Amino acid sequence: MGSRASTLLREEEIEEIKKETGFSHSQITRLYSRFTSLDKGENGTLSREDFQRIPELAINPLGDRIINAFFPEGEDQVNFRGFMRTLAHFRPIEDNEKNKDPTASEPLNSRSNKLLFAFRLYDLDRDDKISRDELLQVLRMMVGVNISDEQLGSIADRTIQEADQNGDNSISFNEFIKKVCL
Amino acid sequence: MTDLCEGGMDDLWSIAVVLLQVWFSVMIGFIMIPAMFGLSLGVTSVYIQILVKILEWATLRIERGHRERSTLPVPAPLPFGLIQREGGSMEQEMGELRRYRTQSISRGEFALSDSFYFYIKGLESIVDDQVTQRFSSEELVSWNLLTRTNHNFHYISLRLTVIWGLGVIIRYCVLFPLRITLAIIGLTWLVIGTTLVGFLPNKRLKNWLSELVHLMCYRICARGLSATIQYHNKENKPQKGGICVANHTSPIDIVILANDGCYAMVGQSHGGLMGVIQRSMVRSCPHVWFERSEMRDRNAVTSRLRAHVAAKTNLPILIFPEGTCINNTSVMMFKKGSFEIGGTIYPVAIKYDPRFGDAFWNSAKYNMVNYLLRMMTSWAIVVNVWYLPPMTRREGEDAAQFANRVKSAIAHQGGLLDMAWDGSLKRAKVKEEFKEQQQKMYSSMVMGKKGRNSQEPHTESTRRQ
C-alpha cells in the first residue's frame, strides 16, 4: 500500500542514497514505490523472478544479462540500496553537479562509469577483456536462432579484428571505448 | 432497584425499536422505492457536488502546503510514465547509437553499440513498464481524503485532518450501514423475486416480470454503492440476440450495466451464496452458467453461446473479453473467443471516476468480501457508460482482427490506453515468441536486409493468440 512505502524508507536512508547515487529526494521515493511494487514477496529484497515478471523485460533478448547486473557476485537477492546503486549508472549526466568536490570519487553516472558498466555486460569473467567467446555469447542472445554458427563466428571475428589494436585477439576497455564513440 | 433497572431497560428497548422503525421507513421511503422505479430524489447528486467542492479545496490546500514546506517544485503528475523515453523503432534507435561511427544500418553488420539498445530498453522497463502498472490501482494526481490512497501525502494542516476525520466517521458510521442494508435487501429481493417469477408459465408475462425484478434489484444494489451512472448514446443500447462486450474493471461492472437494461450473464457456476443467486436467476430468464470442466472446452462454450444468440428472443449476452480485471487506465487484449460466436457485437465503454473511490478489484491482493467492503466505504462510485454503435465482422477479417478493432473503439471512446498486451499476464508468464520476434528483427538488421516492416513486435495486430 502506498502509505506503507513512504513510512518504511527513513529520512536518513534517503539522504545516504542521495549522497551515494545523486538521485533527488522525489526520485528516490518514486523508485522506492517501484521497488516495493516489484517485491511480491514483501521481504524488502528482489529476486530474479521478481524481475522476470515484468513482461517487457522478459521478452528482451538481453534481459537475463541486465537482471544479472543487479545482483552482486553469487547472490540471489538485491535490496533497495543495491537496486539504486545499479540504477545510478543511468542517471543523466548533469553539467553542474552539486557535489563538485575534487577529492570525492567519480560519480556513479560519469561517462566512463557508464561505459564500464556496458563493457562489463560483455565481459562476464571480469578479466578486463572481451574474448571471442564472450562476444559470441551476447551475439547469440541477440539474434536467437536466425543466424548460423559460422556466420555468427565470422561476424564476431570481423568485429574483433576491427577493434583490436594490440593484437591480443580480444577487446580491452580502451579499445571498446574507441569503437563505440568517437 | 431491579424494578427501576427493568423499567430503564424497557425504555431503552422501545427507543431502539422506534429508531429502527424510523430507519427502515426512511430507507424504504426515500431510497428503495424511488430506486425501484428508476427515479432519483437528487440527494446523491447534491452529495457528489459537495464532495467535488471539498476535494478541490483539499487539492489546493495540499499544493499550498507542499509549496510552503519546501523549495523543491511540486512533483508534477506523470501521464505517460516515470521516465522520458525515446519513441523510435529498433532500427532508428540502433542507427542513433551507431552514428558515432560512420557505419549505417542499411549496410548491415554488427556494432558493439547495438547491445546498448537492448540494455536501455531493459532498464527502462525495470524502472517503469506499461503492463504491471495496469494490475494495481491507478495513482491519483491528488489525495482524495481516503486513507487507502494515501501515497506520499504528509500532514499538511489541522483543517485537512479534521475533514479527513469527519470523512472517516461519515463513511464508516453513516454510509456503510446504509449501504450494507440496501445491498442485503437488494440481493434477497433478487433471489425471492426471481424464484417467484420462475413459477409463472406464461411466456410474455414471465419475461416482462423477470426484467422488472432484475432491474429493481440492480437499482437497489447500485444505491447500495452510492453509484451515480451516466449513460451516453442510449440509442445504441444492446438489442436482443446480440452480444454486449465491455472493458472489465470490477465485478460491479455487471451492476452498472444491468441498471439500464437486462442482460444474460455468462460465467462459471459457483457454490455457496453466489450459487444460490445464480440458480434463482436462471429460473426467471435464461443465463448461461458453465461448470468448471466445461469452461476448458472452447468448442462447447462457443456452441452454447451460439445457441443462445441464435434464439433471437433471448436477452443480449454480457461478456468481458479481457478475461480479468484491469485498473481502468487501459484496455488490454480481447480474447478472440467471444468474437467467433457470430451475431452483432454491441461495444460498451465503462470509465470510473477515480476521485470518489477506486473501483478496481485487485484479485491478487483482496478477496471479494474485502473488496466489497472497501467499495462500500468509499465516497461514492461515479461512472460514465458509453454505448457504441454495433459492429459486425467484416469480410476477410478474422476473429483476432475484429477483436482488436472493437477494443480500439472502446479504448478511444473511454479515453483509455489501447494495449496489445494480454491481461492474463497478471498471473501467467509472457510467451517466448515475443522474444523470438525481437531476435528475428535484429537478425535481419545485422544481415543487412532492406524493406522489412520496422514496427515493434507487439503492436502488430495479425499475431495469432
Automatic annotation (TrEMBL), chain A:
GO terms for cellular component: cytoplasm; nucleus; plasma membrane. Residues 26-61, 110-145 form the EF-hand domain. GO terms for molecular function: calcium ion binding. Its main location: membrane. Pfam families: EF-hand_7. SUPFAM superfamilies: EF-hand. Coiled coil: none annotated. It is found in: Cell membrane; Cytoplasm; Nucleus. Keywords: Calcium, Cell membrane, Cytoplasm, Lipoprotein, Membrane, Metal-binding, Myristate, Nucleus, Phosphoprotein, Protein transport, Repeat, Transport. GO terms for biological process: protein transport. Belongs to the calcineurin regulatory subunit family. CHP subfamily. This is Calcineurin like EF-hand protein 1. The lineage of its organism: Eukaryota, Metazoa, Chordata, Craniata, Vertebrata.
From TrEMBL, chain B:
The chain crosses the membrane at residues 12-33, 39-60, 156-174, 180-200. Residues 453-465 have a biased composition (Basic and acidic residues). This is Glycerol-3-phosphate acyltransferase 3. Residues 242-353 form the Phospholipid/glycerol acyltransferase domain. GO terms for molecular function: glycerol-3-phosphate O-acyltransferase activity. It is found in: Endoplasmic reticulum membrane. Coiled coil: none annotated. Belongs to the 1-acyl-sn-glycerol-3-phosphate acyltransferase family. Pathway: Phospholipid metabolism; CDP-diacylglycerol biosynthesis; CDP-diacylglycerol from sn-glycerol 3-phosphate: step 1/3; Glycerolipid metabolism; triacylglycerol biosynthesis; Lipid metabolism. Residues 434-465 are annotated as: Disordered. One of its GO terms (cellular component) is endoplasmic reticulum membrane. The lineage of its organism: Eukaryota, Metazoa, Chordata, Craniata, Vertebrata. It is a multi-pass membrane protein. Keywords: Acyltransferase, Endoplasmic reticulum, Lipid biosynthesis, Lipid metabolism, Membrane, Phospholipid biosynthesis, Phospholipid metabolism, Transferase, Transmembrane, Transmembrane helix. GO terms for biological process: phospholipid biosynthetic process; triglyceride biosynthetic process.
